[in-house]
Amino acid sequence: MESEIVRLDFSRAAVAAWAFDNERHSAWPVVYLLDDGRDTARRPNKLIDIYVGESLNAVGRMRQHLDTPAKQHLKSIRVILDGTFNKSVCLDLESYLIRMLAGDGAYRVLNRNDGIIESNYYQRDIYRERFRGIWDQLARDGVFTRSIPEIENSDLFKLSPFKALTEDQANSVEDVVKGLTTNVARGVGSTTVIQGDPGTGKTVVAIYMMKLLIDIKTSTSLEDLDRDSRFAEFFTEDNRTLLQGLRIGLVVPQQSLRDSIKKVFRKTPGLDPSMVMTPFDAGQADGQFDLLVVDETHRLNQRANQPSGVLNAKFAAITRALFGTDDTSKTQLDWIRTKSRHQIFLLDAAQSVRPADLPAELLSTLVAESRAAERYFQLQTQMRIQAGSDFVSYIRGILDPLPHAEPPARPDFGAYDFHAFDDVAAMRAAIFRRNAEVGLARMVAGYAWAWKSKRDAAAFDIEIGATRLRWNSTATDWIASANSLEEVGSIHTVQGYDLNYVGVIVGPDLRYNREQRRLWVSRGSYFDKKGKENNPVLGRSYDDEDLLRFVTQIYAVLMTRGIRGTYVYACDPALREYLRDLIPPSS
């Protein structure tokens, strides 16, 4: 049975007339969409304002919206009617449509995100199958401008503040916000740590919290009066007053991920791209922040040779401005703590990939401090990799730099497409097939080849037998770029991102010693200069064991990008043989 979608004007007269059509319009669970009625074909650069809601009393709810100043400009109503709907179904459908509209890219979604969590209910799988039919009807009516795969593969969808939270994510957000508002009210500072493996949604939590705090800050008593949400307790007049004037920023060390998040903030009411900063932006900003949220905290820098002389000078200047002297022991972590009264750090120490990253002992101290203050939270639910949470620990076991007395036992990863290839051309062909089937399949590699094409666009960087490939032609949003399927991404373009399928080339920088039964690194085959240089400022040098740790952590990050599957090809014959016993061979 197909759901019915009724369209009417967003006006008192239209709502009043509709109220008399059927008693269910005032006493039945429905989902509805309000929009400002703009024609995207004639105004392609203008976002459509849209709001999605659910109610047991559609007529009464529309009258409330008509009295809300923030919705006075809306023009059109679409009501989704279905005789089988109940409250749980409507909440789920509402969340689904909000997520899809935010990911479509044509909309400015006016909703709060306080109810977007992953919940279960009777016959959920059956209803979610029916959501596709509702989506199809709305798409035929021109509501959606992109296909479902295009939306679900987009950064706007994956990094949306309207993502559905898992239970452990929701618990963390609830406890963090509760502690933050309590500490703000008491006038005391706080440091919170949220730790999680790849795929547990640290970036999602960071963005979600930013949106939630802004929603609390800007909420009014006229909005969402019948909302039954997980975080409804935070929407009080006291909290709204408490958060007024609160200066909030999101610090993201990685350029590509930072730029992708800025695109999301640009399309989200209450959020602004200027909130998304580099560590340097935060360090040299005027005045103090009330709260700084730091994603990928492990990628903050200690004092080390920066990518440019300008940044070296800036590092020293910020340190002097904040601490009165150029104290080389100060790190970007110290900047963040000095520039803000409250901090939320999201991290995974095993994803540090360069000597300039914060040292492991400093991250351990940060975690210990947050534990002692009862401000430590851990994300455990695997959101990305369909193989489950054991996959990350298994990959890290395969890549353990210590000698392997016995190879790690391979768990059952079910239908997850996990294979080792003996031929890189065959792996590349498989990636192309997967991309044609579901999209978002890419090749990545360790930094084991010089980047010749950076200066000569006609040059090839990676040559393995007859296969000739080029590195990523852009460092910004490479995964979504036009040439990405033909190219190979590096750690700096994919860390923090999801792919449907990832094909990982393990270069000649990582090798295997059969006699010693351990991995080793070929320093001469590793071409990331910043990834292996010593630190004369701090008097630190990095030997091959240090480099091996960084390289294996890089490959662990690369091998944990794939939602549906991970393919691996190793250049070193001994390593290929070692992996053959640990990863199912391709057929």
Can you list the strand order of the major beta sheet?
Answer: 8-7-9-10-6-11
**In terms of per-residue confidence, which ranges show pLDDT below 50 for 5 or more consecutive residues?**
none
Mean pLDDT figure:
93
CATH superfamily of the largest domain: P-loop containing nucleotide triphosphate hydrolases
Shape: globular
Any overview of this molecule?
The protein is α/β, with parallel strands linked by helices and 587 residues long. The protein has 3 domains: 4-151, no CATH class; 167-379, Rossmann fold (3-Layer(aba) Sandwich), CATH 3.40.50; 390-580, no CATH class. The protein is built from 19 helices and 20 strands. It has helices at 12-19, 58-66, 87-104, 124-140, 148-152, 155-158, 167-186, 202-218, 237-243, 255-266, 279-284, 309-323, 332-339, 360-372, 390-398, 424-438, 491-494, 544-558, 573-580, and strands at 4-9, 30-35, 48-55, 76-81, 107-109, 190-196, 248-251, 276-277, 289-294, 340-347, 376-379, 417-421, 441-445, 462-464, 467-469, 488-489, 499-506, 510-513, 518-521, 562-570. The strands form 5 sheets. The chain has a 6-stranded parallel sheet. It has a 5-stranded mixed sheet with strand order 1-4-2-3-5, with helices on both faces. Strand 18 (510-513) and strand 19 (518-521) form a beta hairpin. Helix 1 runs antiparallel to helix 2 (58-66), helix 3 packs across helix 4 and helix 8 crosses helix 9. It is globular, with a radius of gyration of 25 Å. The two termini are 43 Å apart. The mean pLDDT is 93.
